[in-house]
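Question:
Write out your own:
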Amino acid sequence: MTSDSRRLADFLATHRPFDSRLTERAVDCLVDTLGAIVFGATQPWSQATITHALRTGGGGPCSVIGADRSTTPAMAALANGGSAHAFELDDVHEEAINHPGAVVVPAALALAEELDASCAELLDAVVVGYEAMGRAGIAVGPASHMLSGFHPTSMSGVFGSAAAAGRLLGFDGERMNHAFGIAASLASGTMEFASSGGMAKRLHAGRAAEGGVTAALLAADGFEGADDGLAGRYGFCRVFTDEPRTELLTDRLGERWMIDEITIKPWAACSDIHPLIQATQELRAEHAIDPDRVATIEAWGPTKAAEQNSLDGSVSVMAAQYSAEWNIAAALLADPADPGTYAADRIAAHAVTTLQSRVRSVSPAPEFDATYAWKMGGRVRIELDDGTSYERTVHGQRGSMHDPFDSSDVDAKFAAVTGDGHGAAAVRDLIGGSARALALRLATVSAER
């Protein structure tokens, strides 16, 4: 009997060609992720990861964005994946609660550069990687998975990077499935950063990218993985959750595509609280709210946001990007679309900490739990010092598949985060050629920052 893991592997290894809609979406995801890598490479935690990758990886042909040296595919995937996830700018598959771009694109770019593949082959690998990572993410029962303490990006990410790498390596279904079986043993990453801080979350996408590349390269050398690494009795989807949905690994393959369901972030914060940011911004704009007159604020969201995103955002950049209270305050005072809003020297400013303290509660609401995480929702109520109150609900935020970005929005974001007004156009021009030329262009953009 063919396992669910093998059925998925067969499809991802052999499906051709991809619909032009999928490849166009892959281009947008590629441009968006490359912008996140360029920006993220400047962060101190990324520099530490880059230093480690270059020190331990040895020589190789694969570009590390933000460095003047290249390295092996696995170490380039680690470094660039860490940079992609470094500042909460990377895309999201909401239902899977994971960040495919930050894992899949660095892995695919590294292998494509080593193999001197075309960008057309790179885009195929991106579609395949998003599909594998998204399906692993939804099949593991993502809400239960995350609330149990596992970080979905680093856990399900290894399957996305393994699939992207395997596609570029020309795997058949059997070899792809071996890569999945190996990757299942490399899945790791906890949510403790949401409780006691640290930099570990910044590493998670890079570690998943590295793990998947390693799994694929081992499979290419004849190493064999479990036959049902995803859905078996002790497979990924059963071990790391109380609510497995293994049927989703293969449900509507070829009809439902994960890359169609991607959220491209307008704000450098956890996407679970984006509806709260948007609701606050809309209230501010509509009613010209004076932050000094705000008496209290109440907010509602899914249980996950109430439990894991309710924290003091002034203690670190990571906390600021994860905190519902802090982001509501910041949306009344600044522009969350500017990554500088989350700069270390701004997150503890008196105005924002004072306003954060006026967020009385972040409560779970059944209406948002009912659609979590396929469709994110949130509600904000702001009461002024004279008793006037304003309320706004957002259910399906800007940038999500429910209110999506188009290519011009993606290009504008790339320009904003890289400081290169023509960079997105240059990247899109290069997508007609080789992946190596694209990687070298990104290294140049990063060096110019």
The first strand starts at residue 62 and ends at 63. The mean pLDDT is 94.
